[in-house]
């Protein structure tokens, strides 16, 4: 059976355009799948976090992103059922865009697992990233299909 598949593949004249087209289609599918997973994970987090409370910015820490740029991340403390929890708020590249220490923020948390929580503005990066991934995926898929179609 393997020999039959190999002989069929070699019987078809495979061009560079076909390989590039198939690669771009696969890349487009991969980017689209990653976008789907980001959106699904975000929606699941929003669905699970039905509890609401307020939290207080207690500190900041800074780090570097994947490109080596400095990012600032607020640490937010909140209380559920008498137990204190802390989460990281939305990161920023500009220190002046962060909420000041002591500011009160809206927190949404999972009633079954209060450690799972987010600030009300926490998903802006996920929305941007998933949108970029889906657009990239569609473009790669369409370009790959176009190249594959015209290389046949």
Automatic annotation (TrEMBL):
<keyword id="KW-1133">Transmembrane helix</keyword>
<dbReference type="InterPro" id="IPR021994">
    <property type="entry name" value="DUF3592"/>
</dbReference>
<feature type="transmembrane region" description="Helical">
    <location>
        <begin position="6"/>
        <end position="36"/>
    </location>
</feature>
<keyword id="KW-0472">Membrane</keyword>
<keyword id="KW-0812">Transmembrane</keyword>
<dbReference type="Pfam" id="PF12158">
    <property type="entry name" value="DUF3592"/>
</dbReference>
<feature type="transmembrane region" description="Helical">
    <location>
        <begin position="128"/>
        <end position="150"/>
    </location>
</feature>
<feature type="domain" description="DUF3592">
    <location>
        <begin position="54"/>
        <end position="122"/>
    </location>
</feature>
<protein>
    <recommendedName>
        <fullName>DUF3592 domain-containing protein</fullName>
    </recommendedName>
</protein>
């Amino acid at each position: 059976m393997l020999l039959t598949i190999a002989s069929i593949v070699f019987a078809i004249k495979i061009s560079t355009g076909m390989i590039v087209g198939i690669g771009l289609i696969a890349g487009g599918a991969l980017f689209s799948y990653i976008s789907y997973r980001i959106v699904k994970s975000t929606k699941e987090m929003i669905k699970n976090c039905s509890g609401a409370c307020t939290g207080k910015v207690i500190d900041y820490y800074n780090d570097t992103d994947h490109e080596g740029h400095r990012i600032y991340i607020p640490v937010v403390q909140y209380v559920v059922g008498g137990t204190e929890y802390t989460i990281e708020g939305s990161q920023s590249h500009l220190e002046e865009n962060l909420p000041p220490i002591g500011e009160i923020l809206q927190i949404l948390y999972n009633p079954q697992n209060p450690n799972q929580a987010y600030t009300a503005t926490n998903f802006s990066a996920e929305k941007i990233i998933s949108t970029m991934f889906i657009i990239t995926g569609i473009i790669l898929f369409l370009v790959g299909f176009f190249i594959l179609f015209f290389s046949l």
